[in-house]
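anyone else get weird line breaks when pasting these?? whatever heres mine. first is seq + tokens for prot A
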Amino acid sequence: MVAEINFIEFNKLSYLVYREQIIDLYFQAFTTGEYAQFLDRNFVVNTIDELINIGGGILALFADRPVGILIASPLFAHIEFPITDSKDLLADNTIYINEVVVGIDFRGRGI
């Protein structure tokens, strides 16, 4: 039987449970392959730690292993983003998608 991909809430608790695996997934996704780049581990760890304190998201699990993650936070938490309220965009009600990470072996599978 093939295990299916399950989606759970990415919050402080799930981050504590899967923290090292999430960090490893992030590095695997962004430091290998055609678009590989250099990432400083401490910077990535600090960034994800900070994001989970102001936001959350969705964690994709395959056989109880993280294979994808979406991290989002309130737009007003991003001072570098030029916020101008309009009738169509209210900063207090708008979510900013910080990161979308999918493991190489799981890309193109609907995550």
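and prot B, same format (seq, then tokens)
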Amino acid sequence: MIPRDYQMRIARDGTWFHQSDPIRRHRLVKLFSTVLSRRDDGQYWLKTPAEQGIIEVEDAPFVVQAMRVENAGREDQTIHFITNLDHDLTLSVDTPLVMRPSPVTGEVTPYVEMPRGLSARLGRTVFYELVDHAVARSSTDDVAELGVVSDGVFFSLGQVSDDDIPTEMATDSSAAIRK
């Protein structure tokens, strides 16, 4: 199958374009997203049984625009993320949170990994809301790991000095939480 040039790209804000024009039909974009995948070489492809082609993705193909927390602060806390295309992602081992440099800004940025090699970048507002649910746990001398717990798993947001941890943010030492 010879790859086609679809002349499509996904902007950092999650907007899909065809020939430099935004695709305004939300349902059409959602349909395209069902055949989107990322290969090991980092290229994004739209692939149907009849044809396939490479598309450009500036950062991540999806943007997390909202979140909700079930059983907040409890051992069975679960965090859900909603993307710009209505994907409902449960933060878990299968859809983990990762911190990595953005290909656009170079800044360490939070992403949720998805099936087919895809990911969703957390929007700034959602990230701030997520940090409100963060806990600190001891890591090394004078340093703590800051992160969130969802589906029984601790997801790191990064390390902070013990001196920088707010007093209301208790250090988590629960044996039920596994890394």
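btw re prot B: Helices lie at 26-33, 124-131. Residues 172-179 have pLDDT under 50 and may be disordered.
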